[in-house]
Specification:
The protein is built from 2 helices and no strands. Helix 1 packs across helix 2. The radius of gyration is 11 Å and the shape is globular. The relative contact order is 0.22.
């Protein structure tokens, strides 16, 4: 299995996004996680989070 390193800032951002999705009744899916990572990377291009494949 491949490991990815996320910064503390990225983890906090992704946690907020995923909690928001769950609180709105969505199931956590790979697509939702990938979308949250893409949004984080767009907002923080200097410290991007690794994309999952």
């Amino acid at each position: 299995m491949e490991q990815s390193q996320f910064s503390q800032q990225a983890l906090e951002y992704l946690t907020r996004c995923l909690r928001h999705a769950v609180s709105n009744g969505q199931y956590l899916t790979a697509e939702i996680l990938e979308q949250a990572i893409a949004e984080y990377n767009a907002e923080h291009p200097q410290t991007p989070a690794p994309l999952l494949h």
